[in-house]
């Protein structure tokens, strides 16, 4: 456990010391929140869907955690390039502990980033329907972070250069985000799109956040929790397998 804690703490300190990264990572969520939240708000209200800021804020929080956690895999490529990964892999400790520490560190930083964006949403006018549900919301935020930090580890373990990682991210992260229902309701979609959204793990994370924060759910809280826990376990297992096969 000391190895896991040390690597978790390293990821956390590296994030907290990079103030530019903390501030810059707020840019895209703010754009979606302010530009879409206030820009599409009147259209959303005229369609009888209610306040769009209330609807889109959980989606923006989920998006922030998605991007922050999955891009933690970039750190794996940097460590490979500068030799730190080789130093940790030759240490007399199980690789699964190294992978667990890195993944949990990435998930923690993503959770912090999501909390910052949730605070910005509150400033912008978002209000949870029940403040007691915020605790359940944090559980969903943590599960989203673990799922996609593990996915970032899988991808980072399989690739050897930054160019390849960026290519995969552009063809993976954006579809995951846009198909999750973060920006639009999942009801009354075409049949093909309905199937795809049900295969997207982030759909269940965003739906769970909406259930916890604004009392709206498409799949149901129990389904959201079950799917996220199952996917997290699967991705962690695959991440451990991929990490154990890294050749430096």
TrEMBL record:
Recorded GO CC terms: ATP-binding cassette (ABC) transporter complex
Residue spans crossing the bilayer: 20-40, 52-78, 104-126, 132-155, 167-186, 225-243
Its membrane topology: Multi-pass membrane protein
GO molecular function (one): ABC-type transporter activity
Domain ABC transmembrane type-2: 20-246
PROSITE patterns to which the protein is assigned, alphabetical: ABC_TM2 (PS51012)
Predominant location: membrane
Compartments (UniProt record): Cell membrane; Membrane
Short name of any one Pfam family annotated for the protein: ABC2_membrane
Keywords, comma-separated and alphabetical: Cell membrane, Membrane, Transmembrane, Transmembrane helix, Transport
Keyword Transmembrane helix among UniProt keywords: yes
InterPro entries given in the database record: ABC2_TM, ABC2_TM_bact-type, ABC_2_transport, Nod_factor_ABC_transporter
Family in the record: Belongs to the ABC-2 integral membrane protein family.
Name of this protein: Transport permease protein
Annotated organism of origin: Limnoglobus roseus
Lineage: Bacteria, Pseudomonadati, Planctomycetota, Planctomycetia, Gemmatales
């Amino acid at each position: 456990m000391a190895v896991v804690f040390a690597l978790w703490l390293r990821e956390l300190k590296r994030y907290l010391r990079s103030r530019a990264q903390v501030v810059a990572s707020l840019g895209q969520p703010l754009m979606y929140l302010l530009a879409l939240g206030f820009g599409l708000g009147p259209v959303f209200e005229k369609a009888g869907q209610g306040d769009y800021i209330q609807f889109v804020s959980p989606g923006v929080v989920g998006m922030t955690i998605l991007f922050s956690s999955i891009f933690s895999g970039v750190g794996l490529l940097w460590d490979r390039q500068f030799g730190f990964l080789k130093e940790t892999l030759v240490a007399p400790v199980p690789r699964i502990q190294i992978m667990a520490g890195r993944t949990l560190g990435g998930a923690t930083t993503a959770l912090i980033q999501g909390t910052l964006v949730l605070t910005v949403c509150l400033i912008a006018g978002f209000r949870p329907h029940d403040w007691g549900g915020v605790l359940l919301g944090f559980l969903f935020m943590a599960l989203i972070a673990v799922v996609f930090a593990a996915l970032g580890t899988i991808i980072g373990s399989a690739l050897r250069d930054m160019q390849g990682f960026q290519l995969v991210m552009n063809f993976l992260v954006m579809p995951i985000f846009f198909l999750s229902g973060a920006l639009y309701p999942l009801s009354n979609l075409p049949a093909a799109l309905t199937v795809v959204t049900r295969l997207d793990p982030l759909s269940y994370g965003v739906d769970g956040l909406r259930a916890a924060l604004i009392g709206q759910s498409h799949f149901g809280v129990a389904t959201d929790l079950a799917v996220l826990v199952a996917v997290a376990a699967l991705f962690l297992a695959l991440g451990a397998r991929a990490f154990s096969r890294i050749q430096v």
